[in-house]
Amino acid sequence: METKKNVALITGVTGQDGSYLSEFLLAKGYDVHGVIRRSSVDFRERIAHLEGKPNFHLHYADMTDSMSLVKLVGKVLPTEIYNLAAQSHVQVSFDAPEYTANADATGVLRILEAVRTNHLEKTCKIYQASTSELYGKVEEVPQNENTPFHPYSPYAVAKLYGYWIIREYREAYNMFCCSGILFNHESERRGETFVTRKITLAAARIKQGKQEKLYLGNLSSLRDWGYAKDYVECMWLILQQEKPEDFVIATGEQHSVREFCYLAFKYAGIELEFQGEGINEKGIDKATGKVLVEVSEDFYRPTDVVNLWGDPTKAKTQLGWNPQKTTFEELVHIMVQHDMQKVAADHVASVMRTNLAEYLEKGLVK
Ligand code: NAP
Ligand code: G4F
C-alpha cells in the first residue's frame, strides 16, 4: 500500500524556530512549505541555505490576511501545520498592541478556519506556538500544564486567545490541534533585540573593540532558557502523539539576565563584576575597571514577567524528550562562539569593502 506523504506548512518559517524546524522536517523526508511575507529586503538569512532544495517551497501569505491563508492551505493540503508566525517581541507589543493581537490572536483563528474551510479537519494536525509568557505575573513556581495563567503584556494576552481558541476547536470540532507552551529558547539565530542575543553580540563586539558599552533593562529577571534546536523536536513529537494534548517545554533550570551576561562575557574573555543596585547597577571589567554594562530605563517594560521557570516532567515522561540535552552553559557558549566569529568576519568584510572603495577611487581597480 502506498504511504501518504507528510506535508508540513510552517508559518513563521523565516524566524528562529521556523528555520530549525524546516531543517528537522526536511531531514525526516517531509515536503516543507513555508509562509513568507513581502519585504523590501529579499534576503532571508535564516533559511537562505534551504532555498532551492526540491522539497522546500515558499509561498506569500500573511497572518492578518484570511483569504491568503485559506487559498494557501487549499493549495498545499498540509498534513501538519506548525503555526509559528507572530509578532514575537514582548516589549514591541506595548508599542504595537493592535497589530500584535491581529497577528498573534486572530491569526490563530484564521489558520483554524482555513483548515475547516478546506475540509481538512480530519487529516490535518495543527501545532500552536504557545508561550510561557501566558504565566506572566506567575501564580506558582515552577510552572506546569496546570498552573493558572496571568498574562502580563499585550503579547501574552494575544497568545492567551491563541491558546484557548486551539483548545476550543479541539473540543468543539474534534480537531487534532495542540499547544506547545514553550519557555524561552535561544540560539545563534535568535533575533538581535532579545536579551540573550543582544548580550552575546555585545560581548563579542566589546571584546573586539567594536562597541564601548552594553545597556540593558531588568538584570534580575529570571528565565528558563533552552536551545531552540532542541525545542523544535518537541513541536514534531507533540503532533505524533495518539491524542491531541498541550505540553510545557522547558529545561527545568532558572537563571537571571545578570548570570547570562556574566557567563557570556566570561566566554568572550572578560570577567565582569556587578556593583550597585537597580538602575545604578553596573557591570565592571575586573581587569581594567572599565564600566561595560549599564542599566537603562529604555529597556524596562510597563509590566515585566520576572520569574519564569518551567516543569518539563510531562514532556520528559510522555514525549521521551531530554530537557537537558544542551545545558545553560553550553547554550551561552554556542552563542558567544558564533558571535565572536561573526563580529570578526564582519570586520574583515568591512575592511575589504573600505579597501576596495579606496582602490576604485584611486583607479587601481577597474
Ligand atoms: P521570530 O524569530 O520572531 O519569528 C517570527 C516569525 O513570524 C517570522 O518568520 C516572521 O516573519 C513571522 N511573522 C510575523 N508576523 C507575521 C505575519 N503577520 N504574517 C506572516 N508571518 C509573520 O520568533 P521565534 O523565536 O522563532 O518564535 C516562533 C514562535 O514561537 C512565535 O510565535 C513566538 O511567539 C513563539 N514563542 C517563542 C519563544 C522563544 O523563546 N523563541 C518562546 C515561546 C513561544 P518575518 O521574518 O517576515 O518577520
Ligand atoms: O529576551 P526577552 O526580550 O524575552 P521575553 O520577553 O522573555 O520573550 C521571549 O520569550 C517568550 C517566552 O517566555 C516568548 F514568548 C517571546 O516570543 C520571546 O521570544 O526578555 C527576557 C527578559 C525580560 O524580563 C526583559 O525585561 O530580559 C529582560 N531584559 C533586560 N534587559 C531585556 C533587556 N530584554 C530585552 N529584550 N532587552 C534588554 O535590553
Structure summarized in a few sentences:
By secondary structure, this protein is of the alpha/beta class. The chain is 40% helix and 16% strand.
What does this protein look like?
This protein has a seven-stranded parallel β-sheet, sandwiched between helices. The radius of gyration is 22 Å and the shape is globular. It is built from ten helices and 15 strands. The model has no long low-confidence stretch (mean pLDDT 96). Helix 2 (66-76) runs parallel beside helix 4 (97-117), helix 4 runs parallel beside helix 5 (154-173) and helix 8 (257-267) packs across helix 10 (328-361). It has helices at 16-27, 66-76, 90-95, 97-117, 154-173, 195-207, 228-239, 257-267, 313-319, 328-361; strands at residues 7-11, 31-36, 56-60, 80-83, 125-131, 177-182, 185-186, 214-216, 222-223, 226-227, 247-249, 255-256, 272-275, 282-285, 291-295. Helices cover 40% and strands 16% of the residues. By secondary structure, the protein is an alpha/beta fold. Helix 1 links the parallel strand 1 (7-11) and strand 2. Bound molecules: NADP nicotinamide-adenine-dinucleotide phosphate and ligand G4F. Ligand G4F is lined by residues 88, 90-91, 131-133, 183-184, 193-195, 198, 216-218, 221, 223, 257, 299, 301, 304-306, 308.
